[in-house]
Specification:
A 6-stranded mixed beta sheet has the order 7-8-9-5-10-11, sandwiched between helices. The radius of gyration is 42 Å and the shape is elongated. A hairpin with a 2-residue loop joins strand 20 and strand 21. Helix content is 60%, strand content 8%. By secondary structure, the protein is an alpha/beta fold.
């Protein structure tokens, strides 16, 4: 400095020599003078000046809301900083050191600057700045203060006086500076997160009344918020955008799927599907995707328009699915691979820095700064690793979601396009599996693939680091590890094959359960529950045998996983000591940490490999489905150019059609089944003019339904020409087996069309709000048929194909439907009606007679009717009777008059989502399912396993400490070279190979001392492996016991449940308990429970060890534990609800898909595919919303737990460094504590995830338990005194019987009283819903009576056991139900009859020719009897009844789908076989019951008439007389 006075002033102020008054550098550090004046006072002056500039801003007095939280924190921080600087200035004055004036000057400047800054903040709060973070210039000034504080702290750290307890004032200055640093950090964080909400800015007109100018906006509902889009970087990093939803979940208000956030734009199902479709097209053409910038383009048009356009996107051509997925998601996925490398690299910093820190602790005189740097490094590396890993996992989950949306949409779209012939090769279950299991496996690939290269990479780096630590000694442990790799591979392959077999038996069991639930009425009627329980038990036994193998193999895996680290450590240290080396704490615990890192890739690799192989198999299965031939309607239908084409509606010329496509041979395995006995339509010639009514007649199985399928394009056209006018408009189709959706009657009829009051009233004059169960379970057969007909009529198409809609309704209703609906409402439309009801054929314009797959003759009714061999020649009803009935018919017979029974919109009841935490009862249930003693033994073995592991590690640290003490007292010089290692470098200067010591070293080193320690260490390790094995195998055994017990209780209770339960519960809901819930109990729950238990005991062990090693840790651990508890509590509520919502929204996707596959014919015929695809898209979107938010919530928790883990590691390091300065720290215990602490984050997050997952899986136990304990059961008691031959006569008496199906519903039987004599044949007639079938249900005790009694042979049936009663009666139910299996299984499941008896009854039922054609009694009947026509199925059910030797036979509509000739022969058979038996027959065809002894006429649940047919026919007022309609006989 040139001026002497200035240099003198500065020298005096700074207490420096006059020749160098203002040094920049002093004692190797920045000088205090430069630090305080240039880095301290100057920025403070700048801060004061710039803050002062804002003091004159215009303020508003109208802002009356509270200040935003960020500004408040900044203001408080600034005021506290002023306080701290004032205290520091006072302390500097008291201490009176050389540089006292410098400190006071710097502190004064700071006080002034922060006071002005506080005033500026107060001004900002009254201006528009409160909406923002404030001027960025002030942030710059604040940031300039950071170097000053850091350097001041460093100067204090280098001076021992400031850290000594003997100098309290100096120590106080150090503490004050640290506090200032903390407050500055808080200030900067408050700047980064201003916590400004729009709701806080309300302009008030008047300060007095405070009424807002604009209404204060409330916080938007979570269901209206779009996730993530528009959030700041900080919000994305810490998932702050998720907080409102988590708060809602914690309040218990997260109950509906629509409460969840909307998906971000790029994850919306439609956006992803459009993008995937473009990638598909690009791959098909072999081109790149053009206009890349529009990859996630937002739609310009309205939503409606885009929906329609999206519905038309179809996947065409044979394209490799992997190629398309690669094109769509490859680039983003590879970029994440780079992130994965960074995550892996940052993971290795932990053990290396741990090594340096323990080295620092071991060296007595090492500089303090080295320890601080190690701790800071540990903190930074764990933090960076945590943040990067979190980002990586979340981004991968997003790609997985996109891929899932693409695959599910693609599979659904393909199912709508694929031709029926191709689809015949797949069962319904297989196709649904493609969408569920296979898609999930392919999506899993995204998680597995990066692990495939990252695990070997981590393994190699870890090995190299181990080599640097212990030289060649690591080879001992490595050999064991490498031997275990093929062993693990072997285990993995065995697990995979067992899993495959288990899933095969599981599929068979679920398939059988599906059939049992579909045919539950038949099973109950025939009392077959014990037989089917055994059948299911057999499948379950096989499934469990593989599950047992699976669990024991899993136990082997768990055993190797848990025992391996201990074994490797033992071998490595033993080898190292035997090679003549000295163990040090740094070496031991870095090695322990590295071995821990080595185990993960070794164990995980086979699983990753399996995951990828599974994905490959699933991808091939999906690819096979995509290769199926699509319907090509362009090629299927011809364009005919004839002169009279405008009059032609349908033209068939020499048509040959088959149910098998040309490509069916590719499908393979089911070709024989489909081909064997399937019908071929040949030489078809048909010309249907517009507006005509064509009746198609012929005997059972002649190809009537196939003809309609050929017209709609569901068959494969082998040759000939088919022309259909205006085909694009679709057909109105009413199929023989009505396909009814699970929706209300109105939704079923509207079928996606807009509501038109006039048309709707015409179709359905009465009520329509009733919910229809799955497959129309709550409707009678006749109601289903009429509902399907009503839907077809409402479609308002040009061509109607009606497949026997009159079969299931009585004569009265059939007459009405024919007249009002088919002839009047559909007048002018082209109608093709297949029917067995000959009496209506004369109304047709043309009749087509079919036989054996071809058209024998077409002509007018007059030409064809004589050819039909039928006894029934119904004359015209006399005019008088018709007129008399006209008015009654008008109001009495609506299309569905009996549906307006209840206005409850959902009697089936939506599945109830359980709310809140799991009840303790669920844990108790599982505990007892495992077995009390067994469960206690498992916990005990776990405790011993964990204790032995921790003791072995403690013994290691004890050994090191004693070694260190011995070596320091004996050979100080020799050990120092070994102890003071250079810094842990990746490439140490001494080359890569450590020299191997000579043989003498071996002998001299194995002193008795070392031998003692080694022996104890090895013994503890050995006991640990024993306990580990015990725990693994006990757990496996316990889990299999639980699976066995839970399934048996569930099956037993479900099969004993009342019929009402099955009527009101959707089949999918019950099936879910037997499939996904049991799969959870069998497999997922044990897997996650195992991890949870290991985590709990691991965490307990860790806390004990850490607290023992560094007791001071307990001080910061308590607040951290509190924080941990709060965080997980906040997360768990929402997470649990989100998982439940995920499950709840998943079922509708699959049930909608199953429903679509079942009704494919109807959907395609009516051209409704686009609407169904849209519905699938909506359901998928709903589920994806829940999944996305659920994934985000997991990451929200993860990042917070990672930060807690970072805090624990940092606190441990800080305590260790401080203790090292003041007192002796045992490096062994410190190393042990730190090596444990490095894995604390993993354990903490593992604990919550496994706990939450276990809770989620326990929901399955809760659901199965709900069914096992709460289902309404049929009475199970038996009547011991019941005679073996009862009933001997077969007399039957109903005494004032009243019955209602459920409480709140009207009586289905209302005071029925009648007596049937032994051996009497009774015919029962009445309108649909009059209570005919209900009488049978009452007789079989399917529904219990409200009042009255039924006597069978003078014995009240309520005193007889249900099983006993049903085994003594026989019935042929209305719905002909067959189980998949052979014909023999269906006739005689209990194997009580000889083959000859079975063949005889088949012959009596006129089925022997069909059965022979199919291959005898061992021929398969197909899924639900699909290889038979509806009529043939009814005949098989009749054959069943003929086999039973019951005294009472009930026949319910047994021959509705059978032609009249066969019907007549059957009636003859029944009369002969049941000559001396009591027979009750419900019939819609009057001729069926004309020769009965007496006829019972039912109406509205009451007996109206009961007399002989002759007597009733002679009474003019008789209803029966009107039904017979003018027959004289």
């Amino acid at each position: 400095m040139s001026d002497p006075w200035l240099s003198e002033l500065v020298s005096g102020l700074c207490h420096t020599p006059e020749d160098n008054p203002f040094p920049l550098w002093q004692d190797g550090h920045v000088s205090p003078c430069f630090n305080q004046l240039v880095l301290g006072a100057v920025p403070h002056a700048g801060m004061a000046v710039f803050s002062a500039c804002y003091l004159g801003m215009a303020r508003s007095n109208l802002l009356h809301t509270d200040a935003p939280c960020g500004w408040t924190v900044r203001l408080v921080s600034a005021l506290l900083v002023v306080l701290l600087f004032t205290t520091d200035a006072i302390l500097a004055g008291v201490l009176q050191q050389g540089d006292m004036y410098l400190d006071i000057l710097a502190d004064s400047w700071a006080i002034l600057a922060w006071l002005v800054h506080c005033s500026a903040i107060a001004v900002f709060l009254r201006t528009s700045f409160r909406r923002t973070r404030g001027p960025p210039l002030l942030l710059a000034m604040t940031l300039l203060l950071v170097p000053n504080i850091v350097l001041t702290l460093k100067i204090y750290c280098n001076s021992k006086e400031y850290l000594s307890l003997t100098e309290p004032l100096k120590l106080a200055r150090f503490v004050l500076t640290s506090a200032r640093a903390f407050l500055l950090l808080v200030y900067l964080l408050a700047f980064a997160c201003p916590c400004i909400g729009d709701a806080e800015y309300t302009l008030h007109i008047n300060t007095v009344d405070g009424s807002p100018l604009l209404p204060e906006s409330t916080e938007p509902d979570t269901g209206e918020i779009v996730a993530e889009d528009g959030s700041s970087c900080l919000s994305r990093l810490f998932y702050l955008w998720l907080n409102p939803l988590l708060r809602r979940g914690q309040q218990g208000d997260l109950e509906k799927p629509h409460h969840v956030y909307h998906l971000p734009w790029t994850l919306r199902t439609r956006v992803v599907w459009r993008y995937f479709h473009r990638c598909w097209e690009a791959c098909r053409r072999g081109a790149g995707i053009h206009n890349q910038q529009d990859q996630w383009a937002r739609p310009v048009s309205s939503v409606k328009g885009s929906d329609h356009e999206e519905g038309l996107l179809e996947l065409e051509g044979d394209v490799g699915l992997l190629r398309v997925l690669h094109k769509a998601f490859g680039l983003r996925y590879y970029i994440l691979g780079v992130l994965k490398v960074m995550v892996n690299m940052s993971t290795f910093a932990g053990p290396l820095l741990l090594s340096s820190l323990v080295n620092f602790i071991e060296e007595k005189g090492s500089p303090y700064s080295k320890g601080v740097l190690c701790v800071l490094g540990l903190c930074a590396s764990t933090l960076v690793s945590s943040v990067l890993r979190n980002i990586y996992v979340f981004q991968i989950s997003k790609i997985s979601l996109s891929a899932r949306a693409s695959l599910v949409s693609a599979i659904y779209g393909k199912a709508l396009q694929v031709s029926s012939c191709s689809l015949a090769g797949f069962t319904l279950g297989e196709v649904v599996n493609l969408m569920s299991t296979d898609t999930d496996r392919v999506v899993n690939f995204f998680n597995s693939f990066h692990e495939l290269w990252s695990l070997p990479f981590c393994f190699s780096v870890t090995l190299y680091l181990l080599y640097l630590q212990v030289g060649v000694a690591f080879l001992g442990g490595l050999c064991v590890a490498l031997v275990l790799v093929p062993f693990n591979k072997f285990l993995a392959s065995r697990i995979l094959s067992n899993n495959k077999h288990m899933l095969k038996y599981k599929d068979n069991r679920v398939k059988l359960m599906t059939e049992i639930l579909f045919g539950i009425r038949v099973i109950k009627f025939y009392n077959w529950e014990p037989h089917f329980t055994q059948k299911v038990a057999r499948y379950r036994e096989r499934e469990l045998s593989h599950l047992k193998n699976l669990k024991y193999l899993d136990a082997m895996c768990v055993y190797t996983w848990a025992a391996l680290p201990v074994v490797i450590c033992v071998l490595t240290f033993v080898t190292y000591v035997l090679l003549g080396n000295q163990l040090t704490a740094a070496k031991v615990f870095t090695t322990v940490a590295l071995v821990g890192m080595l185990i993960v890739p070794l164990n995980a690799f086979p699983w990753v490999l399996n995951g990828i192989l599974e994905a490959k198999v699933s991808l091939e299965r999906i690819q096979r489905f995509f290769k199926l031939t699509n319907q090509d309607l362009q090629a299927y239908y011809a364009l005919v150019s004839s002169e009279d084409i405008h009059h032609t509606s349908i033209l068939l010329s020499q048509g040959t059609f088959s149910w098998q496509g040309s490509d069916c041979r590719e499908v393979g395995e089911t070709e024989n089944e489909v081909g064997k006995g399937s019908l071929l339509l040949h030489s078809l010639n048909l010309h249907v003019t517009k507006g005509s009514l064509v009746a198609v007649v012929g005997k059972v199985g002649c190809g009537k339904s196939s003809l309609l399928a050929a017209i709609t394009g569901e068959l494969s056209r082998l040759s000939g020409v088919l022309y259909v006018a205006n085909r694009e408009a679709g057909f109105g189709l009413a199929s023989q087996e009505p396909w009814i959706q699970h929706a209300s009657v109105r939704d079923n009829i509207l079928f996606g069309k807009d509501y038109s009051a006039a048309l709707y009233q015409a179709v359905l004059p009465n009520g329509d709000k009733t919910e229809v169960g799955e497959n129309g379970v709550t409707l009678s057969g006749g109601q289903k048929a009429r509902l399907a007909l009503a839907r077809a009529v409402y479609m308002d198409k040009e061509i109607y194909l009606l497949d026997d809609p009159l079969a299931a309704v009585d004569t009265d209703v059939a007459e009405h439907l024919m007249k009002k609906c088919i002839l009047e409402l559909l007048r002018g439309k082209t109608r093709i009606l297949c029917t067995h009801r000959i009496e209506f054929v004369d109304k047709a314009d043309m009749v087509v007679l079919m036989d054996s797959g071809t058209i024998i003759k077409t002509g007018t009714p007059a030409e064809i009717l004589p050819l039909i061999q039928s006894e029934l020649k119904i004359g015209e009803k006399d005019h008088k009777a018709e007129q008399k009935d006209e008015e009654q018919n008008e109001d009495k017979i609506g299309s569905l008059p009996d549906l307006c029974v209840d206005d409850d919109p959902d009697p089936c009841g939506a599945e109830q989502k359980r709310v809140g935490g799991l009840a303790w009862g669920v844990y108790k249930t599982y505990w007892f399912a495992v077995g009390g003693m067994l469960a206690a033994s498992i916990l005990m073995s776990l405790l011993l396993m964990q204790a032995s592991k921790n003791v072995s590690d403690w013994w290691l640290s004890h050994w090191i400490s004693s070694l260190k003490n011995n070596s320091s007292s004996c050979t100080n010089d020799s050990s120092s070279a070994d102890l003071v290692r250079p810094h842990m470098l990746l490439f140490s200067p001494g080359g890569l190979i450590s020299p191997v010591p000579s043989m003498e070293a071996f002998l001299t080193n194995t002193t008795s001392d070392v031998r003692f320690y080694l022996t104890i260490y090895s013994s503890i390790a050995a006991s640990n492996t024993v306990f580990t094995a015990l725990r693994a195998f006990l757990f496996a055994y316990g889990v299999v016991c639980a699976a066995f017990s839970i399934h048996n209780r569930l099956l037993d209770r479900v099969l004993k449940a009342t019929v009402t339960f099955f009527d009101i519960t959707p089949l999918g809901r019950i099936l879910n308990r037997f499939s996904s819930d049991l799969y959870s109990v069998d497999d997922s729950l044990p897997f996650i429970l195992n991890i949870l238990l290991a985590n709990i005991f691991g965490l307990l062990g860790m806390l004990v060890v850490i607290s023992y090693g560094l007791p001071w840790v307990l001080v910061p651990l308590l607040p951290l534990a509190l924080l941990y508890h709060q965080t997980q509590h906040f997360y768990r509520h929402t997470s649990r609800e989100l998982k439940r919502l995920c499950s709840l929204t998943l079922s509708p996707i699959y049930s909608h898909f199953s429903e679509t596959l079942a009704g494919l014919g109807t959907i395609r015929a009516s051209c409704s595919t686009a609407r169904f695809r849209e519905e699938n898209s909506k359901r998928l979107e709903q589920n994806q919303r829940c999944l996305f938010v659920s994934n985000a919530a997991m990451q929200w928790l993860d990042i917070r737990l990672q930060l807690i883990g970072v805090a624990v590691v940092t606190v441990l390091g800080v305590i260790a460094v401080i203790q090292h300065q003041y007192s002796f720290v045992d490096p062994g215990l410190l190393g042990l504590s730190l090596s444990y602490a490095l894995s604390i984050t993993q354990l903490l997050s593992g604990l919550i995830f496994s706990f939450t997952q276990t809770e989620m899986q326990l929901v399955s136990v809760e659901r199965t338990e709900e069914y096992s304990t709460e289902l309404p059961s049929e009475p199970q008691q038996l009547n011991e005194q019941l005679p073996a031959a009862w009933p001997e006569q077969g007399s039957l008496e109903f005494c004032n019987v009243v019955l209602a199906y459920r409480d709140g519903l009207p009586n289905a039987l209302d005071g029925v009283s009648l007596v049937v004599q032994p051996g009497e044949k009774i015919g029962i007639v009445g309108r649909t819903g009059s209570g005919k079938s209900t009488m049978f249900l009452a007789l079989f005790r399917m529904v219990e009576l409200k009042q009255g009694q039924i006597l069978l042979d003078q014995l009240d049936i309520s005193t007889v056991g249900v099983a006993q009663l049903r085994s003594r009666l026989a019935i042929i139910p209305q719905d002909p139900f067959l189980f998949s299996g052979t014909i023999r299984d269906n006739l005689d499941p209990s194997k009580r009859h000889l083959d000859q008896q079975l063949l005889d009854v088949l012959d009596q039922c006129h089925l022997s020719t069909v059965v022979c054609r199919m291959g005898g009694l061992d021929a398969e009947v197909g899924e639900r009897g699909k290889f038979f026509s509806a009529g043939q199925r009814q005949l098989l059910c009749l054959a069943r009844a003929l086999l039973t030797q019951a005294k009472v036979l009930c026949i319910d509509e047994a021959t509705a789908s059978v032609d009249q000739k066969t019907d007549k022969l059957l009636q003859q058979t029944i009369r002969q076989t049941f000559q001396d038996k009591t027979v009750l027959t419900i019939a819609h065809r009057i001729n069926t019951i004309m020769d009965c002894d007496r006829v019972l006429v039912m109406h509205a649940g009451k007996v109206v008439e009961f007399d002989t047919p002759t007597a009733l026919c002679q009474t003019d007022t008789s209803i029966f007389h009107r039904l017979v309609g003018g027959r004289g006989d």
